[in-house]
Fold this sequence. Notes:
Blueprint: H1 2-34, E1 39-44, H2 50-65, E2 75-80, H3 89-98, H4 104-120, H5 157-169, E3 178-182, H6 187-192, H7 212-220, E4 224-227, E5 243-244, H8 254-263, E6 266-269, H9 275-281, E7 286-289, E8 304-307, E9 310-313, H10 322-327, H11 336-341, E10 344-347, H12 351-366, H13 375-396, E11 406-407, H14 409-414
Parallel strand pairs: 1-2, 3-4, 3-6, 4-5, 6-7, 7-8, 8-11
Antiparallel strand pairs: 9-10
Amino acid sequence: ILLGGVVKLYLLKKILVIIEFSMAIVLVLMVYILQPVFLIRWHRLNSSRIGHFAANTELYCCERDSGINVPKGLYVDLFYFQRGNVCNNQLAVMWKRELNIIPSCIGVIFDKASIIIDFLSPVFGSIKLHIIPDNVSHDRDVNNLLEGSKPHLKFTKNENKKGQSWLNKNKIPNNAKIVLLMVRDSAYLDNSLPEYNWEYHSYRDSDISHFFDVSEELAGKGFYVIRMGQTVAKKLQLKHQKVFDYATNGMRTDFIDIFLSSICTFIVSTGTGIDSVACTCFRKPSVFVNISPVGYFPSYSSNTLLLSKHYISTNSNKELTLSEIFKNNVGYCNNTKCYYDKEVELVESTSGEITDVVLEMVARLDGSWQEEYNDQHIHSRFLDIYRKYISDKNKKQLIHGEIRFRYSMNFLRNNPEYIK
């Protein structure tokens, strides 16, 4: 009986696939006939990972508004979510206000149509026009569009009231200065997608304990510090009325994730998906610490401060300079094994270094930052080296536009050998 049930289920799935492909063939035929008059394009949004769900989609909107990847004639762009895999429901609701989102059950037909188009495109070249091309550089703002445009995500009046109610309930003033703390570890991916081995991503992880000092420092200056995250490995064990371990204390919801990202003063992140909502979708100032690899720094915003992990040679036990990082071919290492093979260990920034760069952002935002005599020369030297080593890579694979970020000035002052 059990075997018969398995066979029936297998046959039903096969029949369903045949029906879906049959409908997809009809769809492709219809849109291809209409193409000379009205172009219908489609694309499946990467709704399973919040970083791509936020950043790739926002950059599509920016590029669309700027006439990039846009057809000349009449057209409509259709989108759909990954079936049964939406990482944040509030973000999905808000994208539906900006884009033409079709139901995922219909999106399955469009997925099959995309397979058919890939098969037919060598013979019918123009049929490829029905697939919305990827952004110029996926989730990277290589055209520096974000700073010159307004966010596309908007809250309704009722949603704003809901957000204000949450603040009041948690005794956070409506005009509070809020810093969102986003520290990446392995817990989220290991728990949400356990079927994959995420060890190759471990070089991006950081220890939340290194952020205790900066959290207390910010709270002492009147900021409310909210530690973000859906699933995290360790608690933020600080007892301060202005420090919230939102990731573990039961406060977290999809809606509040997005709402806080829209109202925060700035974020502190180690480079994890949720930061894209604040820094890309809502253009919030951002401090990125322990960010690696250096060749892929988020470089497009003048409201970004950066500090990478320390690159330590396991042979000499010495820290590599910026030039040596690229010369040793670890400037673009994007998996843990690459660093191991190149005999380089990544070491997290110290609590003091993290505090320094975050307080630099505070001072720059409130206008109290004081440039020292040699600062401009030091930072120009850093940028000259950086631009030199990314230029060849950028010609082969566009990953940077105009370089607008600033590196931690305190780090460069205290470590002059880094830019030799």
